[in-house]
Amino acid sequence: MDDPRWTAVDHYIDERFALRQPEAEAILRASDEAGLPAINVAANQGRLLELFARAIHARRILEIGTLGGYSTWWLARALPGDGALVTLEFDPHHCAVARANLDSSGVGHLVDIKPGPAIASLEQLIATTTPPFDLVFIDADKENYAPYFTLVMQLVHAGSVIIADNVVRDGAVASDASGDPRVEGVRHFMDVVARDERVRASAVQTVGTKGYDGFAYLVVA
Predict the structure, then answer these.
(1) Partner of 83 for a Cys bridge, out of 42, 56, 79, 90, CB 3.0 to 4.6 A?
(2) pLDDT above 80 (res 207)
């Protein structure tokens, strides 16, 4: 599903607020040259992530799904000089590309990339009693969104923000007969969140250069 008006408005927003930052564009080019899929967030969405992090004065950020480090870069920009961002990525090639991208963009010293299955990495973070995170961004395999959320809740504190991307899926999330495991994963995640009294949550539909989708926004009570 697409509409040329969505792309035109995204381009207008990008130009008006100077969102095509040289460092971010370099990350996109390097990721494309390395053969990574173009499934990163859009520029205006990246800035929105940065603003969310700045609004809560985040000092520690957790990201699930690094890809080439594009959203990582936007989030890292919001951190103070002694802040930290931990990002989890399954694919070792993606990890290598992201490491190079983040180092060359000037935020690499703030970012710890943990390779391997995210569930194992989250369990390791819990086992080592890592300090809680102020903001969590989930943008990985949709089938595991619910288990990611369950584990993440052991790594946050009251007031922490959790953002989950790609939860509308061209509107398919509203259908209980999709058959797509990604949609089923998102629906399960939404059900688990809705039952959890430790969070207050909503979700927003979005349109733009990335098509028709949306994100969930949760605040830990």
Answers:
(1) 79
(2) yes
C-alpha 108/C-alpha 49 separation (Å) is 18
Give the tokens for residue 173.
């999330």
Tell me the C-alpha distance between 135 and 122, whole Å: 15
Q: What is the pLDDT of residue 21?
A: 95
With beta carbons less than 8 A apart as the criterion, state whether 167 and 194 touch: no
CATH code 3.40.50.150 for 4-220: yes
* N-term to C-term CA, the chain: 36
Averaged pLDDT for residues 208-219: 97
**Which residue do the tokens 């103070």 mark?**
80
Cα–Cα distance list, 70 to 73, 134, 161 (Å): 5, 20, 20
Token code pair at residue 73: 């870069």
Q: What is the pLDDT of residues 10-46, one digit of tens each?
A: 999 999 999 999 999 999 999 999 999 999 999 999 9
Q: What is the widest separation between alpha-carbon atoms in the chain?
A: 48
Cα–Cα distance, 7 to 190 (Å, whole number): 28
Segment 91-140, tens digit of pLDDT = 999 999 999 999 999 999 999 999 999 999 999 999 999 999 999 999 99
Q: Where are the alpha helices (DSSP H) in 106-180?
A: 118-127, 145-152
Ordered by start, the domain boundaries in the chain are 4-220
Phi then psi dihedrals of residue 213, to 5 deg: -155, -145
Whose tokens are 């349109």? That residue is 207
Give residue for tokens 């710890």: 112
pLDDT higher than threshold 90 for residue 145: yes
